[in-house]
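Re: the 914-residue chain
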Amino acid sequence: MDPLTALGLASNIVQFVDFTSKLISTTQKLYVSSSGAKDEHLELEILARNIQDLAEHAKSRLGGVSEPAILSIEDGTLLDLSDQCIEVSNQLLYLLESVKVKGQRRGWDSFHQALRSEWKKEDIKALQQRLDRISNHLNTRSLLNKQDDVTTKIKLLTVQNRRLEASRTREIKDLGDGFDGIFNEIKKEGSRNRAALRQLSLAAEKGLGYASEQALLEFIRFDTIEDRQIAVREAHHETFSWIFRSSASEGCQSDENFADWLASESNIFWISGKPGSGKSTLMKYICEHEDTREILERWAKAKGQQLCIANFFFWNSGRQTLQRSQEGLLRSILYQILRQCPDLIPFATPSLSHGEGSSLQFDETLTTTKLLGAFQGISTHIATAKVKFCFFIDGLDEYEGKPGDIIRLIELLKSTLQVKICVSSRPWNEFEKDFGQDKSKKLYMQDLTRGDIELYVRDILENDVGFQELKQRDSHCLDLIQNVVDAAKGVFLWVFLVVRSLLEGLTNADRIVDLQRRLRLLPTDLNEYFERILFTVDNFYRKQTAQMFRVTLAAYDPLPSLCYWFIDQEDSSLMEKLEVGPLSKEITSDRLKQIQKRLNACGKGLLEAQTISPEYLKVDFLHRTVRDFLLLPEMQQMLDKWAGEGFDANVAICEATVCLVKTTPQDYDHLRPTGPISDLLDTFFYHIEVLEEDTKYPITIEVRLLDELDKALKQYSEAFDSDMFHLTCSALSGRWRYEPYSDGDLSVLDAAVQIGLRRYVLVKLERHSLSTSRQANLLLTALRRNRAPATQMVSLLLQRGFDPNLPFDQEIGHMNPTVWTFFLGKQWENQTPDNFFHVTKDLLMHGADANASLIIGGKVITAAERVKLLLSADEARELEPFLNPRPKAVQKTRGHESRRKRFIKSVFGRRERK
């Protein structure tokens, strides 16, 4: 149990016992509050409600979707005590309701007298004894014993706050200091200090609130949220400085005044330009420049409001859908808003979660509708929160859908949050129509970057020794710089390529006439330039060139440089022959140097190793325009011809990632859940899924790759005592929110069931018999999937004889559920309504017990009753033949026993009378 949940529950129980004991043993007057409710009634009800909320929160965490866990003896005792307190409170509240205050002089003089009137002496004594037993199990010493756990939890909150860059640093520090002070007070006075106990309960509640905030931020965030911005080239020194000059400034180049827009209330500013003109570089420069924040801070403070800046860089070349979709944009912006303005979290949460209070749980999937609901929730409280928003959104033309869809979304965000937004895109007609009508709120890169291009060309060439020597011999060298600027037509990428070509010429001692001729011969059209570069590749290297380009085009995410080293090896059995064990630093360094030379020789500068991830270099295209060029039909035909028969990029990537998994270093940086190995496994399973869905691939290829990964993970775990299988689960959780249901005996088969690799799973089930425990865990894993193929995997397992009534091998709270009841209790939330109906029908048809019992909301109900609650009336009627539970024998009750006695026994439990 979470330390803060346990502490909050325990402190409330101690308060409850202390308060209730005094209530029944002393002669306290029944004063009436201003609201007409008795003070005792109110305090008793508040304490009972706090205990019940915290107990439900603890049970949901212990038996919930994300954290099935074995209940510790201490936690079990705490929940037992909370249940007893709730029972006692229900009885006393019932009594208080029955006692009517009849004025100051008449009626009951004390609660004690009320007890004596309603109950027998032995019943009151039994109640006090029960409270004493609770007190003996849990006292202030129990609270103090949790101080170390709470301190550790506060440290974890601090670390997580820093990782998420959330704005709760001061609050969490204050909370930790507050806990120290409260514990010191309790050490002095114990349970007598009721104020300290209340403060302890409130502090625990506040800590749980911060933990929930972090959980929401973690839920919204995704791993590649900053990858595109990191990958964009930094602006060359002193370029783009003109962007911050206002219209009144000397040297302002045009009427397109970005600085004026930053300081004004205007809503949308559009940065446009030709492909390769530097739009993304400028957007990165703006987002990261201190002047942007300074101007916006003045704008917000003038209205007495807080500033919140957020940005998103669309990336069509990014293989994760979130990098090029509306969902990715909304999640990124929402994450940045909530981490800067955590007080807005309560208003965003309702559309992203279900449940109430401390039992709140986040939905398994985020849709555009839910995310827009979160923005709508925020919008209703902007005035009170006093926040001004400014968003920067790069690359609208890299959005995966229609331009009109993303334009409407931008307009919706603008109107919902009263935000101002800077967007960038290529000059497509749709964007021109909606964003390009106001000349003062747009700019075209090619019209404004001549000075930057000249600065760049001059800086690069004049710092080259060959050019310096040539300039001393020939005064026409400076003309070359102007010739490049004139021919560039505002396209920075073309300039970059041309300057690189000129530097090659200078390396070969080209004369000025040679350099001028070289410039004249270079195509000014980017596609023609790329084609020219491609056909300069030596015939000897064309096969490797095509294979490298094919792999880069197919890759789920930019691959590490070492992946290309393994792909470049002409050994079809290298994956199987490679031993498990980390490469030495010397070998790793040598291979990185080798592959860099191979990339230069085969890629001719169109492929480059970029520092997208801080862990190591990854290979990607020089620019998006290179990818666009290679996807042209004629280029695809040429790559197929060059690559030769028998080469498949998806298979090559899977083999290379297995090789990298086998040779990874054994250290935390590589093995942490969000580290390089997790990324590799994520990439592997993406490409395995491609093989599964395309029937042109024989199943033998899939089995070979998955079995080799399985063997590698087992060997790695044995050799280095590292839990590689749970890294596999971590990799899967990034895209499918997957967690295994077993702490042991995991294999790649678990992952295959989760992903939906039916062909592979069928082969493994035909070859191996599984224990009932493994069958239960695999069936539960299939039931957790939230995508449509879940029905097919569940059907496959049921047809292979998996029993839905198998007991689940982990204890959840005090229950030992079956696969079927656990699915009905929690996992149905992962399914779409249509999916749930078909899965439920399939389970019932294969023998799921309609009479099985489960606890929902503290009540015991049958599986049939639960299904009927979750299905529509028509669906329930269709399943009626399976939902007729056999009647249970009814136990006779003693009619002569009074209702009062039966009620008291239900509260106090059975006891022997003498």
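The chain has 46 helices and twelve strands.
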